[in-house]
Amino acid sequence: MKTIKQIKLSLEQGASEFGIARRTLTTRIRAAGIVPDGNGRFSIAQLARAIFTDGQRERAELTREQTAIARIKKDNLLRKNIPADLVEMVWFRLVKDFRDRVQCSPIPVKVQNDLLAELAAIPIDEYFAELAKLPADDSEPGEKFSTKNQE
Question: Domain extents for the chain?
């Protein structure tokens, strides 16, 4: 089996070969804790490890996060997202009004109690646990209840 001679480069040669500033390469080598050989040279693998750091992954992650934020802002502008506290407030008022109507209605007390039990507040954690049990719904909001497709 033929042995392959390992290529070693000085700091200047590595910077030139990879097209990176010498100072930047020096900083990255130090940050990565890479030590040169006895002649002050680095292997290609060492230089690559210093140059192609997690910084690139971090930049890619930052780009993904910025894209996600931009998508959320766009959805907000298109009114696809509704603040949860607003939804909670509206539903609380609707349910409260309905409870009040049930209590004041001339229906039998047993029916009133059954309706009021159904309208009792549920803890938010319990709500999300029950929601997670439901099958996935890939339809757009309001699509199920649209009257356009029911002709």
Answer: 8-53, 82-134
